[in-house]
Design brief:
The complex is a heterodimer of chains A (155) and B (123). By secondary structure, chain A is of the alpha+beta class. In chain A, 34% of the residues lie in helices and 36% in strands. The radius of gyration of chain A is 15 Å and the shape is globular. Chain B is built from 5 helices and 5 strands; from the N terminus they run E-H-E-H-E-H-E-H-E-H. Classes of the chains: A alpha+beta (155), B alpha/beta (123).
Chain lengths: 155, 123
Amino acid sequence: MDLDLQKQIIDSTQAVFDTMLMMPLTAGISLSEKVYDFKNSISGMLGFAGEIQGMLTIHCPQEIAFAITSALIGIDVDEVDADVKDTIGEMANMILGGIKDGFTEFGVQINLAVPTVLAGRSYRVSGMDDATWTTVPFYLDEGEFLVELKLKAPK
Amino acid sequence: MGKRVLVIDDSSTMRKIVSRSLRQAGLDFDEILEAGDGQEALTLLESQSVDLILSDINMPNMDGIEFLRQKKEIAGIAGIPVVMITTEGGSDIIGEAKALGAAGNIKKPFTPDKIEEVIGGLI
């Protein structure tokens, strides 16, 4: 597929931050190596299927997740509670929603699942090892987070 | 009795955002009720009356499309306007929602201004 996946990720993530969080966000350049291991982080994952299948994941250090949650729902948080987990899952949902629009314009139909969230002091995220992947780092005042898109053709 | 709105979304975060956006948009609701999916909403509507429903589409248990389908068959609630608030921008699913009676659609992410624009004329 000739769709510019890095641009899709950046445009959709930027739109969510501009519209709903009012947080200045800077996008980096796609990573050249996969990141599997995370510490003191939260990962929101959302699968999709259809004419192409895959997974959108947002990986946030806790401090970033707290800042996003505070900005989105207007309360201060300092622990990984249900609000923080739900917020990161919803971020994945909104970012993939924007990317889905890009797919649709390109003539590719997908259907979204519902988000799942992982959080912990140290964990490893793997799977869909045969998929193509694009991971874009984003920078906020509080630090860096990643948005990863994995794609593969349906069997 | 003041106006009441029901917000249906499986994300508690999104329910909070919608509630806050309604206040920021200056929309005059005296009470905001919440449900986590379509089934929970139908159960709630058996005992509570509302003037407007704002519903996500992509939810577990009962999604927004099935909620619309069942709601339109229930005489006491069939006439309550429903606005979809969803990440779904595709014309197919939005068209299906409109065919089932949805009064409008708000795409996530959204601003309070967009909420006011779509909902303002319905209350």
